[in-house]
């Protein structure tokens, strides 16, 4: 949250907050937390903050901020981490989506790397997803002023990225979907669920075709009004849950 990181004991219902002492961290922006990833390989929890990448040790409960291995070069440490994923094949590698672009962090060497996307050098990354082929899908918008949806497929082996230009049915304007918020695997391995400011749909990974749904007042069983479809979740019953400014809803049989 924007007040730190809190652990909830599901059995007792008790909560433990780690924003109770400012001297635990180097800067108050460390308590502006977004993504959280537990990591059993190092018995710690990684969390992305407005200050940068941090780690909570499970045993000592100490909080460490991961400065670059070469501490003289602070430019390589990304700020405002919005999402992150652990690489499928290299468990020492964290992919970081930030307000300042796309980065990686090597847990073994303590080194950061910044990957410039030529088509969107100022991209604000809102979501990351790595598919089974190892490609990292990068969702966001073109920058703090543009508010134009961007979706890229990044190949770690080559360092190359491919842009997918999303458009709504019957609309020739390629950036009509607004910010791209979330990427989720579909039942068909050739497809991905995508949510944007004003749509939710299925993307064909091979030809880029985007089958999208938007709010339609004539369809009360469709997407909710007021848009901003910020997050999606698949449950074990085959339902697709979607959050928006109007509330939360689900679609049946989305994963069958």
List the helices and strands and how they pair.
Blueprint: E1 6-8, E2 15-17, E3 33-39, E4 44-49, E5 53-57, E6 63-65, E7 81-86, E8 93-98, E9 101-106, E10 111-115, E11 124-130, E12 136-141, E13 149-155, E14 160-163, E15 180-185, E16 191-196, E17 200-204, E18 210-213, E19 231-234, E20 240-244, E21 247-251
Antiparallel strand pairs: 1-2, 3-4, 4-5, 5-6, 7-8, 8-9, 9-10, 11-12, 12-13, 13-14, 15-16, 16-17, 17-18, 19-20, 20-21
Question: Care to describe what's here?
Answer:
It is built from no helices and 21 strands. It is mostly beta strands. It has a four-stranded antiparallel beta sheet, with no helix packed on it. Strands 7-8-9-10 form a four-stranded antiparallel beta sheet, with no helix packed on it. The protein has a four-stranded antiparallel beta sheet with strand order 11-12-13-14, with no helix packed on it. It has strands at residues 6-8, 15-17, 33-39, 44-49, 53-57, 63-65, 81-86, 93-98, 101-106, 111-115, 124-130, 136-141, 149-155, 160-163, 180-185, 191-196, 200-204, 210-213, 231-234, 240-244, 247-251. A hairpin with a 3-residue loop joins strand 4 and strand 5. Helices cover 0% and strands 43% of the residues.
């Amino acid at each position: 949250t924007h007040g730190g990181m809190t652990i909830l004991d599901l059995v007792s219902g008790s909560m433990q907050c780690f924003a109770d002492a400012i001297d635990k961290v180097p800067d108050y922006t460390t308590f502006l937390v977004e993504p959280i990833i537990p990591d059993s390989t190092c018995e710690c929890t990684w969390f992305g903050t407005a200050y940068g990448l941090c780690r909570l040790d499970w045993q000592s409960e100490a909080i460490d901020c991961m400065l670059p291995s070469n501490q003289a070069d602070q430019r390589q440490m990304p700020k405002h981490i919005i999402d992150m994923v652990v690489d499928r094949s290299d468990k020492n590698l964290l992919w970081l989506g930030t307000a300042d672009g796309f980065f990686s962090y090597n847990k073994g060497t303590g080194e950061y790397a910044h990957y410039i996307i030529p088509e969107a050098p100022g991209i604000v990354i809102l979501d990351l997803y790595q598919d089974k082929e190892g490609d990292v899908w990068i969702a966001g918008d073109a920058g703090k002023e543009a508010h134009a949806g961007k979706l890229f497929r990044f190949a770690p082996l080559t360092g190359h990225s491919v842009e997918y230009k999303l458009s709504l049915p019957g609309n020739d304007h390629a950036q009509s979907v607004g910010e791209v918020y979330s990427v989720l695997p579909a039942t068909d391995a050739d497809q991905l669920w995508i949510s944007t400011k004003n749509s939710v749909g299925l993307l064909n990974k091979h030809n880029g075709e985007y089958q999208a749904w938007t709010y339609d007042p004539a369809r009360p069983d469709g997407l909710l009004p007021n848009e901003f479809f910020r997050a999606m979740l698949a449950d074990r019953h085959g339902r697709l849950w979607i959050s928006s400014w109007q509330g939360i809803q689900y679609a049946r049989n989305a994963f069958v």
